[in-house]
Amino acid sequence: MIELEDKLLKYCLENILSLTEASQRWGLSEATIRMGIHRDRFIEGEEIRKSGKIWLITYQAMERVYGKEPKKNEDV
Length: 76
Description:
This protein is an alpha+beta fold. 50% of the residues lie in helices and 16% in strands. It has helices at residues 2-14, 19-26, 30-38, 59-66, and strands at residues 16-18, 48-51, 54-58. A three-stranded antiparallel sheet has the order 1-3-2. The termini are far apart.
């Protein structure tokens, strides 16, 4: 049971991003995402929330507003 709870917690945490991480992963500026927040493109309390000075956003919210996360080009 504890193993399942650990996996669930890890899944939940992997789906919450800081604006910095979200902007890097989607290739957008933080200003673009902040503009989306101020234009009410995200549901506050469900998709985004502010923790101190840091905005947190769900992976699903980023996909809903900006589309799928771009594939990374890996040089091999």
